[in-house]
Amino acid sequence: MRKRKQLGKTLPWIALIMVLFLACFHMDEAFASTMEESVQFTSEAAGRADLQCRIEGNRIVIQGNVTEDRQTLGGSDSWLYLFELQPYEEGIGIRKDYAARIGRESSILISLPLGSKADQDKRYSSFVLAAFDGNIYHTISNRAYVSNPEVLAGNQKPYKEPGSKKGLLLDGDMLSDALELGVRNVSVNMTFNQLIGEGIDYPYGGKIYHFRKEVIQEYDKKISALTDHGISVTAILLNGWNDSLPQLMPPGVSKNDYANYYMFHASTEEGTDALKALASFLATRYSGEDGSKGKISNWIIGNEINDQVWNYIGPKELEAYVREYVKSFRIFYTAIKSVSSSDRLFFSTNFYWNEKNPTNLNYSARDVIDKFAAISREGGDMDWNLAYHPYAYPLSEPEFWDDREGGYVTDSPDSYIVNFENLRVLTDYFHRSELLTRDKAIRHIILSEQGFTSQSPARGEVQSLQAAALAYAYYIADSNPLIDVMLYHRQVDHAIEANAYAAVGLWKCDMNVSSPFEAVERKMAWHVYKEIDKESSLETTKFAKEILGIEKWSEVISDFKWAEYES
């Protein structure tokens, strides 16, 4: 695993105390006094303010720099005004209840109480600076969110790296099979429409939220068992339709046959409150502090968000769509990181890196990544990460190594498809400065969904090709230092998918049983995957080199991890 470069500076405590003691702002009697510190920030435009927001102890501290230009700033008086906004608020509007006011100084620092109650907690809030023209307040700054919710976390343990990159999406109750395979990473789907119910009451923000006891207890059993075996758990959070839960659906969105899942939203007060409660409940329950519940270390918010079939909110241009998603992602981020500081949050995309014909329902993965990064940076960057799905193209054939033939896969950042054949396009792209973390580190990338079919429409059963594809793909991921985990999808064939030549399971299923998880026979790929993260796998995968027409894996994989053991 790569080491993440640590940078950043903190102000000396003595200097900070002196500045806070000496500087004071004039405010209306209705508001608590705030303190000023001279801190320099770069302003992107004259007459605007660039704000940053952090938690310091039990207070929210808003810092920034203003370029004094009365004409550009506007306003009819000598004050600037700080407003607190909730996630669902689009702007100040006609509000007049500012949280603080300050003189038009070049540098600013405002300190407000964090709030001790959930319904008063400012960790989810954002802050803007405004000028008053005598009638309304005009925003003159970016919208700054809390950038360090992790300082509130009760669990400050470092992230526990798994023993290998080998992972699996767990099907049903087949934990014993996963253990026999020796996977060190497992993902589980958590659909919110199934979580909500009766049996477990959770008070939050002055309300009581109800969770389905039997479903939650099944997750407790599964996640705690995985944790006890030292397996890293990734939760994929999905918003399935439920007629009785309108608060979880984006406003104005009806049930749609196009959609498998729906976008989480923070566009209304009720929806925002529900997301806070749901995220807080899951983060607290699976923080690892209660051994009977287990630990979730990675959280994927939604699925393949560049295609609305998996994250539906209705037709939207890219900018508006991603902004809506970022709002809900930030709520999950704040809730989870303020419980377990080292947990990692991800959004996922499919392999359509540059969609040839994007619409207002599907977008290029690259465009979504770029837009998410830019919008996140505006409000106070989060340590977001990417969960990518590099399937073969098309999915009905297992050989990804010939995907260049149609011109869809190239080594250019403008490639239509990015999958295992050109995975370096993805990881090289994440070296770009605009995608780095605040500490100038490369973000974490996991391959959270990919599988290779054992049924071809032209050739019938092709188990050896499936096994060869799995071996080759894992070796590529394992030899790339910027890939953290490869979660294979799936454990068992899904009957409907298998009939469509997407028999990607490690097990065959009973095609006459409605359940997709009726495992009946292990495939060749199962035996390959069991050995794949060991030196001994070189013997197991000798057959694949003949299929690929190579003598050594290092011929086709740069920096092959096991190169020194190849004869």
Number of strands: 22
Overall pLDDT confidence: 89
Q: Main sheet: which strands, in order across? A: 9-10-13-14-15-16-17-20
Number of helices: 14
> What percentage of amino acids are in beta strands?
15-25%
Share of residues in helices: 10-25%
Poorly predicted regions: 1-47
Shape: globular
Cα separation of the termini: 26 Å
Outline the biggest β-sheet: 8 strands, parallel, barrel
Helix/strand class = alpha/beta
Oligomer: single chain
Describe this structure in words.
Residues 1-47 have low confidence and may be disordered. The chain has 567 residues and is of the alpha/beta class. The protein has 14 helices and 22 strands. The strands form six sheets. An eight-stranded parallel β-barrel has the order 9-10-13-14-15-16-17-20, surrounded by four helices. Strands 3, 4, 6, 7 and 8 form a five-stranded antiparallel β-sheet that branches. It has a three-stranded antiparallel β-sheet with strand order 1-2-5, with no helix packed on it.
Quickly list its features.
567 residues; 14 helices; 22 strands
